[in-house]
Structure prediction request, 601 residues.
Amino acid sequence: MNTDKTMSSVLSLKDIVQIKGERLVLDHLSIDLHPGELIALLGPNGAGKSSLLEIAAGLGASHQGEISFGNVLLHHMSAAQRSQRIGFLPQRGEIAWPLDVITFVGLGRLPHQGRFTSQRSEADHHAIAAALEETGVEMMHDRGVDTLSGGELSRVLLARVLAGEPEWLMLDEPMTGLDPGHQFELCDLLRKLTSDGKGIIVTLHDLSLAAHLADRIILLNEGKLIADGTPREVLTASRIHEVYGVACDVQDSSSAGLSLTLRPEHRAKVFSS
Amino acid sequence: MKYFLSQKKLIAMLSAVVTILGIVSLASGRVWIGPEQWLSLDSLSQTLMWDLRLPRTLLGLMVGASLGLCGAALQGFTRNPLADPALLGISAMAALGAILSIYLGLSGLEPWVLAAAAITGAFVGIVLLILLSGLAHTITSFILVGVILQTLASAGVALTLSMSDNPWASDEIINWLLGSLQDRSWEDFLFALPGVLIGSACILLTRPALDALSLGEIGARALGVNLRNTQWLLALGVGLVSGSCVAATGEIGFVGFIVPHLLRPLVGNLPSKLLIPSAFAGGAMVLAADIAVRFSPGAQELKLGVAMTLIGAPFFLMLLLKMRRQSA
Prediction:
């Protein structure tokens, strides 16, 4: 159990470089990530979002640079410590077997259980129940994960991460495949977790959704940090055009917030160049 | 709604089945010796029971349990319901190891050499399997590498056969390929036992990792699992267990593939919960098949390994068709 409910640790990435084969995937990135703000990691396909997220979670392939978690270096932490403090949701979360929801969510407790046995303690049962309740999936606890709709599944996936009671949640494209209603529902849940003091980073493809959801946006392109700031600061028409190769109208109103309208005609340039 | 059983209930039921089959297996043979006669046996029946039927029964139980356990563990590790030590060529590699030791005359030196050679073969097999299929276990890559290993091992066996000038050697080699429990002694059982016990312990240690792997590789690593350690622990375990079994009885296929598949829904699909019930059910299945073989009309000719394959192959085909329908 995470006894001090005050604040999670600050995560700082210093001078991260990752090279895969001949390709420079991440190019000298330095970012400080603070808990309590909802951070969206944006960028076109291949920009390095997932690679950066994996590295920040301590799961990345070989790279240079340093990641400190509070006052310890991430690579000095044991796998068990790291996995207790950082919850990670892989892209298109694979579930190999048709487990029922409560068993699946229970897998999130593995970092807190023995290395070679999986006896559940009181704390485990409590955390699983809390995660089911927080995500509103208690009602479906005995259903198979293979029978869930996309919206239900996304909440169950998040419940699995929450069951581990991590300080940080790193979610790789949690919104993909969700309709707008379910996207907003998940946004509300993430906002609530942020206000509880959890650190949250999500990678997203939907710029409007990022503008709606995030306190802070980190925009990557070809492994470089392009912009880092509030949605208003980062999501400008010229920058979106530069990074994504699409024209965009950005309207900023105090009532509706930032609204983005993408126009596809410029997309052809990306392919012809 | 789900209707799976608690682990305890399932194991209690399976132990009851195993006990009954054990009794039937001890009683059956060319002469039926029912339990009511066990306390007043004449010396001939005593020898028959003690030197032939008891080791045969224990060996069948052990081999079946081992195959069930290995199959369940391999299926959990690869997230692939088709994985099985025999199907993936691991047993064939163990047989090749055993046969090479016979051909080279090493097996005559010390009684344990043959088991060690089979274990080495199985270990080489599973290591090759893991290395060649990479950590990207798609069903196709795993099965393909398994087919390659199987073919390679068969070629090795055929080569050994054709080079062997001793007619006895060929006979013995054929016995390996068609697994059997016939005429096994205490020695066969006792030489296999340590490898099976140590290997099973290694396999059981991977339980939390197998559960975590339900989330895929990166998901498992995010839960703190060290995949490399898991992989080596499992390779060592499966190598020891399936190598020891092949050394004792030759190749018996499909048990490790059918048993976990049938039990999976009953344990709620969680890989860790599948291991021990699969061991019990594997023991029961091999005992049942061996009893059936003893009662079959051509008992002298029909080998247990052949019988298992006759049952297993259609089952495999059925599962394959079902998977194809699901993915279509």
